[in-house]
């Protein structure tokens, strides 16, 4: 029997051989075929090792779990940074309106406060997107 026929579990008479047991063959998506090397500081390396040991898995399995279950949040874009700065400025304006309302009365700041509230709401909705 040649190696091709053995690999395909086919006997010389064309019939399929009985399952000999063993581990099932992994699918294409389950195979671990990519390798990534990283450089770490000593402190980071031992922190990874200790976290993996306390989780009861290898360091590689721990990192794969970190990738699939959590992740690093992306940095804020320039646009989001600008929007957040505008929001901080509006919060400052709102604080000034609150001080003015305490000094002069709430009726005097009702309209500016209402327009500022609408602007803040629009800005927060833009940040969410």
Walk me through the structure.
There is one protein chain. By secondary structure, this protein is mainly alpha-helical. The protein contains 5 helices and no strands. The N and C termini lie far apart (64 Å). This is Plasmid mobilization relaxosome protein MobC. InterPro entries: NikA-like (IPR053842). It comes from Bacteroides clarus.
In whole angstroms, the N-to-C terminal distance is 64 Å
Proportion of residues in extended strands: under 5%
Radius of gyration: 31 Å
What sort of overall outline do the alpha carbons produce when their principal axes are compared? elongated
Keyphrases for this structure?
Plasmid mobilization relaxosome protein MobC; mainly alpha; 129 residues; 5 helices; elongated
Topology, element by element:
Blueprint: H1 3-7, H2 42-55, H3 59-69, H4 78-104, H5 110-128
Helix pairs in contact: 4-5
Short structural description:
With 129 residues, the chain is an all-alpha fold. Helix content is 59%, strand content 0%.
